[in-house]
Amino acid sequence: RKDSQQQVKIRGHRVELGEVEAAVAGCPGVKGAVAVVAGEREHLFAVAIPAISEAPIASISERSPVENREAEHTRLTALSNILIKERGLSNDRLFTNEQSDESSSRYHAVIEMLSRNTSNCSTVCRDNALEEAADFYEKILTEAADPSTLYESDRFSPEALFLSRNSSQRIIKDAIATIKAMAETLGRKLKVADFGCRSGRISALLLPEVADTISEYHLLDTSQSMLDMAKTRLDDFSEKVRTAKLTKVVDQDIHARFDVVVSINAIHTMEEPSEAISALGETLAADGRAFIVDPTEFAPSAMVTAAIAQCAFGDGEPSGLLSPEKWIDSLSEKGLRADWVKIDDGLFISLSSRTSPPIDLTLLRSTLEKEVPAYMVPEHLGILPSQPLSRNGKVDKGSVKDWAELYCSFCDASDNYIEPNGEIEKKVSSIWSKFLGGRRVGRYDGFFEYGGDSLSATRMISALSKIGIKASLKELFASGNLADFCKGLSISSPNNSKAITINEELRFEPFDLTEVQRAYTIGRTSGLDLGKVGSYCFFMFETSEYSHDRFASAWKILLERHGALRTLLVKNGEKQQVYRSSDLNLPLAVQNAMDSKDARKIVEQAMSHRSIDLTKSPGFEALSAVYSSGAVVGIGFDNTMVDGVSMSTVLAELAELYENPGADLPGIGLTFRDFVVGHRRDGREVEEAE
């Protein structure tokens, strides 16, 4: 049986998943459903997609100014000067001074951000706190400290930095007052949740103040590692505290359960903030309230921590920050009515409630039991805030399948446990257990299958290195289970890293594609099911003053500066080669437009469904649609040659060169080709191109 098939066999009965979905979708308050089977015993799961009524658009009742921004910018500049100018941090240094199996190149964007914030002025406000911050960040950036220490720090974690703001004290008091007022209104003890609890620092301030007014306090987060840290922090209240890992499906155990949901400085750290808002709403009881606080901009004091968190774990991406207007629209679209909204110190703060009653899953189950045979009644139900669609518009059951498999992994574990074999497997199993909530780990159990994530994986790899077992995240992602992961591992002392050597004579010789590049090139072909997938994205900008000569001149400098922009596929796409800039034509086009609207239409139509032939052209292009009072400029990249961080770098440098044609940009150091061809780690080749 293939997962994509709609007909499955459950306990000897043939079941059409479409019929199960239709039965669930026919229940009150449900507009759609997804059914899947999971686990070795073919358990039937279903999620209901609620019919949501949009809420009225709220207005901002109060705006307070941003506090201490000038002072924070000054200290960020001082910190940047210490790290970049005094201590010589650069991408060149990070490439050649690695202390772990994972590439320091992941911090490229952090170094770029620090470099942009340096100043020629002498360092000001120099004090012990600034030196301590520089020491802390330098250790992480040079791999002398594990990036997970970022979340453990009492001074530099995202939570600690948030709580150091003056406004945070007002916010904590407001949250406490909200919980107490709700308890008084309802006349009973409450069920409260911290949505996106992270390591529990905020809950540690809330819970002691409201413990007498609550019966349950749930810690909710997308990371099992964070949940473990938070639970440990709140150990004094263990009789009230429970934990649940957030997935895209809101499990029946937390659906419509809470009288008050508090989410402070958390939504923007989640993969899809808009969907996180929907999930938060689905955890609210019918008359519950959500106290939400989230930044609309990164404070300068938090920028270094935020940049490291994004590079190491994908947390806190700037695109996740919603403007106040977008927040208001999102609350309305997700069916959350704002009782009030205010902006304080660059933070969006609201108290919201449901516009539609929650789906009654107990009633839904009893309805199904009356209308369909017993074997068609799902064993477990959940809520999916919105219909999951793939890129081609079809229903994507992946997120539901992941939720179901995670649930089954805990149910089936005792039946499928096989003892780890040998010293290495037993030691690794013991370490895995510490990062998987203390569960027993057998030799055919998978780390991510049982709830591991990128943060816990990074900490786990670090823990293994401390007992002399050298492994990498790449090996962990490639392995299916404990036994696979342990193949080839040994207990030994770590070897010294070797610096990359550069052979200039081979600069323009072909070299191998990386695994990610191979995946992109294979996905572009039509020989596979679901093939012909593009790896192209474009950005569109509008300006009232445009000079194509300055634009082209800036691109000429970038083409000469970045070898990746001069790299083409050769030898039938099996290799890649850096060309001299003189051998290539700049892929810059210009068209005339009638007005701004026409210019946007020209760029969108030309670039929205593009695919660059990388055997003939470099992995970028630009189209300028010029009209009488300005221009719309589209800039496209192919991810095969230019990744997300590199796009940001190129666009930032393009803007700088356009505004200041003689700008002095920082040195490049090692190139992508240098890294792919010459990189060595612990005496083992990561990837060798020649």
SSE diagram, text form:
Layout: E1 7-10, E2 13-16, H1 17-25, E3 30-38, E4 43-50, E5 62-64, H2 69-86, H3 91-96, H4 108-116, H5 128-141, H6 149-152, H7 158-163, H8 166-186, E6 190-195, H9 201-210, E7 214-221, H10 224-233, E8 241-245, E9 250-251, E10 258-264, H11 273-283, E11 284-295, H12 303-313, H13 324-333, E12 336-344, E13 347-354, H14 361-371, E14 380-383, H15 398-416, H16 422-435, H17 454-466, H18 473-478, H19 482-486, E15 511-512, H20 515-523, E16 536-543, H21 548-561, E17 567-570, E18 575-578, E19 588-592, H22 596-607, E20 620-627, E21 630-638, H23 644-659, H24 672-678, E22 680-681, E23 684-685
Parallel strand pairs: 4-14, 5-12, 6-7, 6-10, 7-8, 10-11, 19-20
Antiparallel strand pairs: 1-2, 3-4, 9-14, 11-13, 12-13, 15-18, 16-21, 17-18, 20-21, 22-23
Residue share in β-strands:
15-25%
How many alpha or pi helices? 24
CATH classification, class level of the largest domain:
Alpha Beta
CATH architecture call of the largest domain: 2-Layer Sandwich
Strand order of the largest sheet: 5-12-13-11-10-6-7-8
Q: Identify the overall geometry.
A: globular
Question: What is the radius of gyration?
Answer: 27 Å
Number of strands: 23
Provide the number of structural domains.
5
Instruction: State the helical fraction.
Output: 25-40%
CATH superfamily of the largest domain: Chloramphenicol acetyltransferase-like domain
Mean pLDDT, to the nearest integer, reads 85
Main sheet: strands, sense, barrel? 8 strands, mixed
The fold-level CATH name of the largest domain is Chloramphenicol Acetyltransferase
For the termini, the CA-CA separation is: 43 Å
> Could you say which structural class the secondary elements and strand pairing correspond to?
alpha/beta
Low-confidence stretches: 96-104, 680-690
Cofactor: pantetheine 4'-phosphate
InterPro entries: ACP-like_sf, AMP-bd_C_sf, CAT-like_dom_sf, Condensation_dom, Methyltransf_12, PP-bd_ACP, Ppantetheine_attach_site, SAM-dependent_MTases_sf
Pfam families: Condensation (PF00668), Methyltransf_12 (PF08242), PP-binding (PF00550)
Domain Carrier: 419-493
